[in-house]
Every structure is written in structure tokens, then in C-alpha cells.
DNA sequence: GGGAAGATTAAGTATGACGTTTGCGTCACA
DNA sequence: TGTGACGCAAACGTCATACTTAATCTTCCC
């Protein structure tokens, strides 16, 4: 566990949060602050601060005389990076990974089209550099090095779109890519066709060809869905 | 103001949050818990709980010996519903509205395509009902009634996609639609073409025509972008 | 049997004390 | 003059306790 977060409340959060996100406490379960304080051997104040954060994520609801109630999954703030992380670490990881991948496939092609219009020269250079890095590490079981370039490529792309909502999804894409490398069946080297597509996307963005950038990125994301057996829209 | 949130910490949050989200405190500004306690006339405990929530939204960072520092905009959890609400109420409302609209335009067509495959009979009925409601209220300055149906239509559509990430964006779409009605230049009745498109989308989803549902929805969202002078991708 | 008044319970708030970290100034030394 | 170690103090972090508030349950009377 990485319960090393500074402060006791962070420690409590990193224990309680994953428990709830993983579904260990069924929705409707009530937790009492006193019991939690006893369980974690901290004061009620610390528990209250942790509960406030969980409440702000809509994971729980705190009511007087009742206690801290676990909310239904549909109410959770599923875009909160920590909620995403906790859920990916839990039981319904596959389901979560599919949801995120579908979201990614909707967003990233559009982001690529925007990037073709708004990317700065520096961002274009970074895209090309990371695409080249992917080529260089695509053979010979250099999966970790490949992942670094892949992640950086997509982060740069999303940022270059100039849309802050897109940009903030880079963590989601990073989680997807990391998940594929570390958990999915990826013992073999990356698909050469996918690597080529990244190079071509970088090229399309550099030359300002929005339609082409979008279409090529769509091919990448369709491939990502295929890996999870999601039929393309 | 709707500072009626239960509890003192909620009251503090609903004052401090919007201030920060609106940019009244430049990034890097330090707030001291003691000063805040004095300013809001509450105990430091209450301030600390509010700060914890702001910290969980990545709006601020709390460090020992330094104080509570306002973070840069790029670090905010821009998908948190409250952050969205606060920013829409603040100065850079137009910018925020554009970002959200672009996101919506990337997501909603894909969601419509998925809905054509996964929508339940009840959801299909609801879509048709709300589309009809839009038709019925599209003339004669019934803007508020129209907005209710429009919002319900898109919420149902996003939910029917079966993807939880899409479903949770219904608040974003609701904010966009409400923003258009209440602030944008919409003194006239809605565009008849847009109303027709909604009816057709409902029909396409009912008949399971994913490609058509996606394309028709894309037309709706392109229209939404045009209203904000955003050139279509 | 139903409704209202009161008891109960658990969260909410306030307060004061103490602990802990850490930015920053000071001073000595090379 | 520059650099390093040292130590102070500021601000957050934690705790214990007492009190307040409000929702739920119980009881009792009509």
C-alpha cells in the first residue's frame, strides 16, 4: 500500500477510499465516526476530515443521527482521479477499464483534430519525438520504455488540443495504457501498425491536417477497443 | 447566494470555493486557517474541513509552516460538478462554456450511437416523450418548459448509452443548456431544425440505427458549437 | 390505532493545548 | 564574500473534551 500520504487523514483516506470504491461496503452501509476513530486509532477530528473528502467525492453521505452512509455507485464522482485509481485497483477493474476506454475513444480523435490547429511548434516537436521513441522501443521487450513514450505522446496530444477538459483526461489515458502493459496480455511487442499510426498522427498534426489527424487517431482508439473486445461504434 | 448548505463547513465552502474558482485569489496566494476562521466567524475545525474539500478538488494545497496555497488553474479537478458550477458562475464563464461544449460535442454523438444499441424500451419511450415535449413547447416563448424537456432528453440519452462516464456528463450538458437559455441570446424560439433533429434521434435510437443516431446527434452538437461561434471540427 | 411529546443517539461545533514540520534568518567558518 | 550548519518560530496537524443540534425511536395519551 502507498498509505504514505502525509498526515493521518490521508492515511485513513487511502484505506477507507479504496475499500468503498472496491465495493467492500455495500451501498447503504453505515459507518460510525467513533468506530472508525477506534479502528484507525486516530481522533474523531481526523476521521471527520477524511469523511469530508469522501463526501465531496459523493462516495458517502454524512447525516446526523444516522452516520456515514455509503452511496450508490451511480452517484460517485467517477471523474475524480482518486476514485478512478481506487476503482482500477479493485474488483471491477475490467468494467472500469472498458468505460474509460470508450470515453477515451470518443474524446481523443476530436482532441487530435483540435491539436492539428492549435499545437505549438514545441508540442509538435514533442509529439514527433515521442513517436520516434515509440518506434525505437517497439521491439525487443522494452515494454516499460515504450509505455513512457506512449503515455507522453497522448498527454502531449490532449494538452495540445487547447481544451482544458480534454487535457485533464491525460491521467485516464495514462491509466489505460499502464493497465494494458501491466495486466493485459501484452507479453509480445506492440503492434507495428499502431506504432506507425502514432508517427503518422504526429505528422498530420505538424502539417495542420485536422481531418487526417482525427481519422488516424480514431484508428488507434479503435484498436485499443478491439484489445478489450469492445466492438467499434 | 445559496449558502444554505447544511452545516457551517458547507457555508464556508460555498463562499470560499466560488472565490477561488472565479480567480479572485491569484494562484500562489496563501490563506491562513486562523484568518479564515476569524473572517467567517467559525472555529478552525470548520475551516479545516472546508479546506480539506478544496484540497481534494486540487483548488488549494495545504502545507505546514506555509499555509493554504491556491493552485494553478491547470491543476484543478475541472470535472468536479461543484468546480464546474463555481466557474460557470464566475468571470471566465464564456471560456468555460466553450470548453464544456467542445467536450459535449465529442461525447454525445458517440453516446447516441451506444444508446441505439443499449437503450431499454423505457428509455426509448422517455426519449420520444421528451422530443415530443420539445416540439410542443418550441413555439410561443415557452423557453423554460422547453429547457426542461431538452435537459431530460439529453440526460436520458447519456444514461441510455450504458457508459457510466458518459452518464455522469448529464450535469455538464444540463449546465450548457441552462446557460444558453438564461444568458445567451435566446429571446427567440428554438431553431425548428434542431427540434426536428431531436425527434429523429429518438426515432433512430428506437429503431437501433446506431450510425444514424450518431450522425444526427452530431448535427445537433455542431449547431450548439455554431451558437458559440466555435468552428466545427 | 394514531399522533404528538419527549428521550436518545450520533454527527456537528467550539475551544484550548500540544506536537510536528519546515521556511528562513543568523552566525560562524573557510 | 560565500557557504554551510544551526536553531527559532510560524503555521498546520492532532488530540481530548464539552457542548449543541437534529433526526429517529419510544412512549404515552387521546
Automatic annotation (TrEMBL), chains A, B:
Entry-linked PANTHER family: GNTR FAMILY REGULATORY PROTEIN, TRANSCRIPTIONAL REGULATOR, GNTR FAMILY
Keywords: DNA-binding, Transcription, Transcription regulation
Transmembrane segments: none
Highest taxon, organism lineage: Bacteria
Domain HTH gntR-type: 6-73
Organism: Streptomyces olivaceiscleroticus
Listed name of the protein: FCD domain-containing protein
Keyword check for Isomerase: no
Keyword Transcription regulation: yes
Amino acid at each position: 500500500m502507498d498509505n504514505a500520504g502525509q498526515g493521518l487523514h490521508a492515511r485513513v483516506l487511502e484505506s477507507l477510499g479504496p475499500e468503498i470504491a472496491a465495493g467492500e461496503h455495500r451501498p447503504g452501509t453505515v459507518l460510525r465516526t467513533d468506530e472508525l476513530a477506534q479502528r484507525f486509532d486516530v481522533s474523531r477530528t481526523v476521521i471527520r476530515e477524511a469523511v469530508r473528502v469522501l463526501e465531496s467525492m459523493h462516495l458517502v453521505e454524512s447525516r446526523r443521527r444516522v452516520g456515514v452512509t455509503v452511496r450508490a455507485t451511480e452517484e460517485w464522482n467517477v471523474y475524480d482521479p482518486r476514485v478512478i485509481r481506487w476503482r482500477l485497483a479493485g474488483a471491477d477493474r475490467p468494467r472500469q477499464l472498458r468505460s474509460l476506454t470508450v470515453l477515451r475513444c470518443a474524446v481523443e480523435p476530436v482532441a487530435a483534430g483540435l491539436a492539428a490547429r492549435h499545437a505549438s511548434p514545441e508540442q509538435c516537436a514533442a509529439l514527433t519525438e515521442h513517436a520516434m521513441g515509440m518506434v525505437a522501443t517497439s521491439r525487443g521487450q522494452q515494454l516499460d520504455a515504450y509505455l513512457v513514450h506512449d503515455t507522453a505522446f497522448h498527454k502531449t496530444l490532449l494538452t495540445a488540443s487547447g481544451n482544458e477538459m480534454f487535457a485533464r483526461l491525460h491521467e485516464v489515458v495514462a491509466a489505460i495504457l499502464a493497465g494494458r502493459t501491466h495486466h493485459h496480455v501484452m507479453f509480445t511487442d506492440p503492434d507495428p501498425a499502431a506504432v506507425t499510426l502514432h508517427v503518422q498522427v504526429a505528422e498530420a498534426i505538424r502539417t495542420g491536417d485536422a481531418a487526417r489527424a482525427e481519422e488516424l487517431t480514431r484508428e488507434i482508439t479503435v484498436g485499443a477497443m478491439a484489445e478489450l473486445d469492445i466492438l467499434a461504434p
